Amino acid sequence: MRPEPPRRIADYSPLAFPAVMLTVFFVVPFGIMVMVSFFRRQQGGFYTPDFVLESYGRFLSTFFGGVLSFSLGLAACVALICVVVGFPFTYELARAKRWVQVSWLVALLSVLSLSEVIIGFAWSTLLSRTAGISNLLVWLGMMDKPVALTPNFGAVLTGMVYQAFPYTVLVLYPAMARLDPTLMEAARTLGSHPLRAFLTVVVPALRNTIVATFIMVFVFALGSYLLPQLLGRPQHWTLSVLITDQAVYQSNMPFAAAMAVFLVLVTLSLVGLALLVGRKDAAA
Amino acid sequence: MVFQSLALFPHLNVGENVAYPLRIRGAGKADQAKRAEELLALVDLRGFTDRPVSKLSGGQRQRVAIARALALSPKLFLLDEPLSALDAKLREAMQVELRKLQQRLGITTIVVTHDQREAMTMADLVVVMGNGRIQQAASPVEIYRKPVNSFVADFIGSTNLLPVRSGAAGQGVSAPGGTIPGVALGDGRNQATLSVRPEDVHLVPADQAPLTGRISFIRDLGASIETFVDAEGTQIIAVTSPRERAGFQVGDTVGLRLDPEACRVLAS
Amino acid sequence: MTGTLFRRVLFSLVALFLAAPLIVIAGVSVNAQRTLVFPPAGFSMRWYGAVFTDAAWRGSMTASVVVATLAAALAVCIAFPLSWFLWRRHAPWARVFQMLGTAPFVLPPVITALGFLAFWTTVGAYGQPWTVVVAHGIFFVTLPLVTLSLGFASIDRSLVEAASTMGADDRTILRTIVLPLIRPYLISGFAFAFVLSLNEYIVAYMAVGFTLETLPIKIFNSLRYGYTPTMAAISILFVAVAALIFGLIARFGDLPKLLGAWSSHD
Hints:
Chain B is α+β, with helices and mostly antiparallel strands.
């Protein structure tokens, strides 16, 4: 039964509640935020309705530029590592026996749902001087003294990869599960070594999916707020941290809003790009 | 109505599926159960009431779908390619069963199918449609013996379609490979298409028939032998039973004798 | 077979990577003393008990669970009519609402958090506990929306047509055919939203951070002021709850299918 266009007013009724909720509680807050980004900031944490671009002007400072490029670079590193490891991992996962797949999916979902706070706490513990890997290595006799591996860039990177990896796998999973299993088989019967077959057949076949996943993980990593604070020093703080800082502690809503708008534009264009790229794969 | 995909509700068992039409009309549980049992008995599935749908074979699912469609004692029974999802052997058996059921219940039934054997088996009236138009509506035998155009001739059973021209007076028509005596084009036409079924093409030694060609391929199917003859570029197929094996080989030149009664002259 | 060896090694390494922090936290949580050491020096389960006996932690836990339940319910209430409408009717313009539903989740969370902060401040409701329920409900609409879209797509339309030919109207079809078939996706959508709401920090923080301490907020605050193994115990509990919920979904449903693994012969 093909879906028909709605005819009577009553046919539109299911849409009423969702439409109202989404408009009032998403479009309006978002609109307010955009408006606030143009308001004039006043001392003491207030802002007056106005139309000034001074908040956006602060983008041009080297400080902001530094934070922005750091955020983008960090997100790119995270996305790269996750995709490079996640791609073969998900490929193997989709081929595994059903009980193996289900167990892994449950585990991945559980890790994915972990609060950023908990992940930050867990990794800061794991990398600490009193309760971490180095203690284990000392205990095993492989090191002399325990050493704090945090806070530093590596710690932030590790924590974010930990957070983004399950997401990467779950994004890749549908495509991998639907991949024609006879592709690899065909390559093997033509004499190709498994690794070569993988690199020359599977990877190109899913090229667009890989790119789209990279973009999605990139966007996901951009949103990380707590991990840079828990595992890094202020020079490692990302745009999300800066926005919150300005909004809550510096009481500079217009600037925070302006940065948020900027971040939204970047994100939306990336997501749009990912959808376009991903659609080409689906159509293929 | 019975759907091509059968559309059995996966979350209900057999009895609940069959009783669904009654349930949504507010029939009581007892009435539903009673009717379900009646209908399942009708389709030879007694005792299947509590079976989950996923545990049925293809033929059983088919019969549950039929039982469900009959629940409300409809005046008109619609089946949309009902047997296309079954394997060949089961399909043949179900065609006969469906026809017997339909005759027993006496319900007017419309069956949509692309399988012409099915149409020929089950129908009192066959309507052949092509390009959205009705090409011919007649009894199965009439459709087979007297197709009105080449579409119908080719669609039902297999046929040879030969382009023919009027020949010299009294000599019948000229066709690829020679002439066919005893056939007239009529209506002042100069050319037409001739339809002749493979079983009406008889193979004889080349000098005994006015139409000849070379054998390009022979397909021995056990129950019948198909001989592919190439007559001036046109392929003519003759079907014979093994008992009439005439000993021809691929490459032989052979004569084709066509019974004029079995040749149909078509406009296009 | 290099293939199998590679797979075993890869899976083991990833498993180790994913499990390592959790193992450490688990070890730390059973440490008898109030210190952060690993391997643990002395075994005690009292920190798990403290989660329930300590009034502050218990209050946070209750707050988190209540908020998560209500928010997940709200998310489902928004997502269900929307996805049903999109499936049942041909209305391309309505896709705009689908995008609105997906947007908050795709954007960095701080955006949604900030948006809500501005909103609640403007309407004067900033700090009220129910604001976080609404905020989370909207923020997590994507999850049931995605699972329900998958679910509806998997319903064979000829079932609806068959019911209709038997005389069922739209409401009857919804009640007797659609709802039973969509139930697993409703439940999993609710479960995903629930688990994520439990764990969510920043949207909650910017909405009610100063008045209501959900568990993640409390943990983060506690981290600044000093460490207690109770935090570790709670972390393990969170993981366990999530694993339990997802395990139940896997047990009673087809998890690979829910996550999009449709083979061509489905």
